[in-house]
Amino acid sequence: MTEAPTSVRRPPAPNPAERAKTIATRNGPATIMPTQQRADCEAERVVPVLHHVHHSGSVSILLPDEHPMVRTSRQAQRGELGVMVELADHAPVDLREPIRGLLWITGWLRPLTAVSARARAVSIAEQRPDHRLLDVGHGMTLLRLTPASLVLADAEGTHSLRPHMFSAAPPDPFHDYEAEWLRHLESDHSDVVEQLAQHLPAGLRGGRIRPLGLDRFGLRLRIEADSGDHDVRLAFSKSVDSPPQLAAELRRLVGCPFLRQQQRGD
After folding, report:
1. Residue-wise over 179-195: b if at least 16 C-beta within 10 A, else e?
2. How many other C-beta atoms are found inside a 10 Å radius of the C-beta of residue 145?
3. What's the whole-model pTM score?
4. Which own/partner pairs from 219-222 qualify as long-range (CB within 8 Å, at least 24 positions apart)?
5. Over the stretch 24-56, which tens digit does the pLDDT of each residue have?
6. d(CA 80, CA 143)
7. From residue 141, how far is each of 35, 45, 120, 125 by CA, in Å?
8. In terms of C-beta density within 10 A (0-12 exposed, 13-18 middle, 19 or more buried), how is residue 12 classed?
């Protein structure tokens, strides 16, 4: 009897809800599309003046008072318009293919009352100060998208999420540290990036190695080769949640002699 081949185990990664929350927390570029084409609402992608994804998965969207999407949402049945918000997760380094993932939040969009809009603008400003919030009620309308479903697409796969799953998930502990750290790694420690090539399949070592992503489970590299782009995850020995732990794991990956001596002495 022939045994079935053993499947290759993927390195550990944050779960889909955590990855979705991390993308949302980074507040990357957003576009909005109606979920149903209507004669009174433009079907093209709309770039909001400002957007903010709240912990619950609801999205605050700032648009000019006279924008067609604002007018249509006011005229829609129940005062709600079905829309989809697309959030793009851009790599913090200059890659030839910069988008690392996409998060789609589909739900119902409605304008907020003047009182609710001011309260929500203050709440957003406490987390992410932005002078454009001062224009709420002065030529700008603040709308709220109530989520019905979310879909995440990234290097780990495509996953459908319910709002309660997104709401319960924390962002990655390095979400506000990753961009600066990866840029620093590429600009000031290219030798370290090259040393990480020892963990790559032999066929990929001739390409240009770029730092792509960082999370509590590992470091992701992008290899830009003539044959195309290839992403590889280098797993840490354990989940980390602080810069000192991260530094220790990076030394382990590059084979730091000092770290090996320290481990033998433990």
Report:
1. bebbeebbeeeeebbeb
2. 26
3. 0.88
4. 219/250, 219/253, 220/155, 221/193, 221/196, 222/91, 222/95, 222/97
5. 999 999 999 998 755 445 557 899 999 999 999
6. 10
7. 21, 18, 12, 16
8. middle
